[in-house]
Amino acid sequence: MNIVVIGSGAREHAICRLIHRSYLCENLYCFPGNYGISQIATCKDISGVDEIIKECKIINPDLIVIGPENYLSQNLAGKLRELNLNVFGPNKEGANLESSKEFMKEFCLAHEIPTAQSKTFNDYQSAKNYLEINKGPIVVKYDGLAAGKGVFVCQNFDDALSACNKIFIQKIFNKNENKVVIEELLNGQELSYFTITDGDNYVNFGSAQDYKRIGDNNTGPNTGGMGTVSPAPILNQELEDTIQKQIIEKTIIGLKKDNIKFQGVIFFGIMVDDNGSPFLLEYNTRFGDPEIQSISLRIKSDFLSLLHATATNNLKYANIDFIPFKKSICLILATKGYPDDYPKDTTLNNLNDFENSEDFYIFHAATKMNDGKIFSTGGRVLSIVSLDESYSKCREKVYEVADKIDWEFKYFRKDIGSNF
Q1: pLDDT tens, position by position, 131-175
Q2: Domain spanning 123-178: which superfamily?
Q3: 280, 114 contact by CB (below 8 A)
Q4: Which of 135, 187, 179 is nearest to 160 (CA)?
Q5: What's the pTM value of the predicted model, to 2 decimals?
Q6: CA-to-CA distance for 109 and 102, rounded, in angstroms?
Q7: What's phi and psi for 95, nearest 5 deg?
């Protein structure tokens, strides 16, 4: 098969690795890709929706896999399906589960899916009026896509008002109209759970726990994720059964009832409260980053056949198998200063000293090659992933490599997986 993967991050690198190792894969393309991806796929420096559609018409691939959420919200999947191409990823209507927090809340309410109580506001003053009565702790969420940075966990009124100011007044996410969802703060432990569906059938794809904040001990602002462990350590059989009945099954049934055709992966961001009850915090309609990096090394079965079955409505014939009893950890190496201001085009000197294998891999998120040297091009730059029998052994490997990478501007959390 000829495959096209859309995106340029470590998520897409992980997806490309799994596809590349499939016996079904003949030619693999990635638009636009990065230096790491270029080692296993043909990368083309195109990123606009129209450009991508034009190139896909030329290649006429057997499958297109869309990685980032912004393409899904722009209905790239729907436009490609109109050309009778097989696509893994939902149309715009399904992508609304992620791209609109308000839509997600309305969907949960309609289908009795447990989630935090919330209210939606279209302007700063009405949000401020509400916060003066409900002063916190409380959560302020930007309604649209924000690369993992649109959620503000606020301990008091001042923090919440500051978040609303950033969204409505400073317009840090959108220079036009803005909207916020303000919801109750749920306490407990978070986990990420993944389900793949073709609209009729579904298979569960695994779990992970994410470290979202920039600093050790979960301090500082939210990021796109600074590391993950997989499977989620807090997920036992009883909890998984409850998640299945209360959240996953209701979601799949709800999509059918609402006539939302969904072919792709649903990421369930779940809070497990102190009583062990799960609540849905958010949907993502694509593989999580950095969750997929850690999950990917645990996959034993043919990933490409699973994606193709999903895109062709044949999921009932597919399966997912994991390497038994193995755990994995992903550690993010970011540029110093992320998620705020940080330098670009910094040099990574010795990446080729580290050899990838079945139980160790360095995924590239923001790299390029110039004159024989590897440079950074963004905030989160590398994902170092290790597979082993215990979280402690995984930790030893990823931190050993992180310390050895010769990069003046590297930053990473020191506590990924330390509490398991």
Answers
A1: 999 887 999 999 888 877 788 989 999 999 999 999 999 998 988
A2: ATP-grasp fold, A domain (3.30.1490.20)
A3: yes
A4: 135
A5: 0.94
A6: 11
A7: -65, -20
